[in-house]
Design goal:
Helix content: 25-40%
Number of strands: 8
Strand content: 5-15%
Order of helices and strands: EEEHHEHEEHHHEE
Number of domains: 1
Strand order of the largest sheet: 3-2-1-4-6-5
């Protein structure tokens, strides 16, 4: 039984993946997809991250592969869920258990294959119009650490920052909160969320975005609250 069936009464319990099996898979009712593609011509590896912390193939069987990107992304999500902070837990679990699909990948096929993709991690709206509230997160932590000359940045804080954008996008919360001059409030919020993770990992808060000091616009972790619980 779908563990979230009672939350989606408009969709019949007999309508697997909202009657759209050509696009969606749903082995356990959860919707975070981890995928990896070396380039536009290479094979796509795509698995679902379940609420139980396991990875599942499209046929519902457990993923037993050894793709390092997939396993590293899984570990980052596992670690975020285990930090024990209510704000972080609410955001990650909300994305895992929602009906929309959130993809985390190293490669955006439409953008990267045309040479238009950004080199750093980012979050954008899903290109699938039927995936309302869903999003795509490009997660390339090694590139971010090198680009920002910040070798101590953890996978968890990098992914957490982008997944907070995904959460805000899902709930229509983008643009809320305080903004720094020249820096969107969405990025201030992402940095606040990132600093919660840094603190839980025993590191000092990050006070810069790019090369700019934005410390005066940030909220201490002890005072931060998500817009929506």
């Amino acid at each position: 039984m779908d563990p979230l069936a009672e939350e989606y009464y408009p969709i019949s319990t007999y309508a697997y993946v909202a009657n759209n099996p050509m696009i969606y898979i749903d082995p356990n009712g959860m919707e975070i997809i981890l995928s990896y593609r070396e380039n536009k011509d290479s094979e796509l590896i795509s698995v679902t991250y379940g609420n139980d912390g396991n990875l599942y193939n499209a046929d519902g069987s457990k993923y037993t592969g050894d793709n390092q990107y997939i396993l590293n992304a899984k570990t980052a999500i596992d670690n975020l869920r285990e930090l024990g902070d209510e704000n972080v837990t609410n955001v990650i679990n909300d994305l895992i258990t929602g009906p929309e699909k959130h993809t985390i990948s190293n490669f955006h096929y439409k953008l990267d294959s045309r040479g238009l993709g950004k080199s750093e991690s980012y979050n954008v709206k899903s290109s699938d119009d039927t995936n309302v509230g869903g999003s795509f997160t490009k997660f390339v932590p090694d590139t971010d650490r090198k680009r920002l000359n910040s070798p101590s940045m953890s996978d968890e804080e990098i992914l957490g920052h982008e997944l907070k954008h995904a959460y805000n996008r899902k709930h229509g919360l983008r643009g809320r909160g305080a903004a720094a001059k020249g820096l969107p409030n969405e990025e201030v919020d992402g940095l606040n969320f990132q600093n919660i993770i840094r603190g839980l990992q025993g590191r000092a808060p990050k006070m810069t975005f790019g090369r700019r000091n934005v410390s005066e616009y940030l909220t201490p972790a002890s005072e931060y609250k998500n817009y929506k619980k």
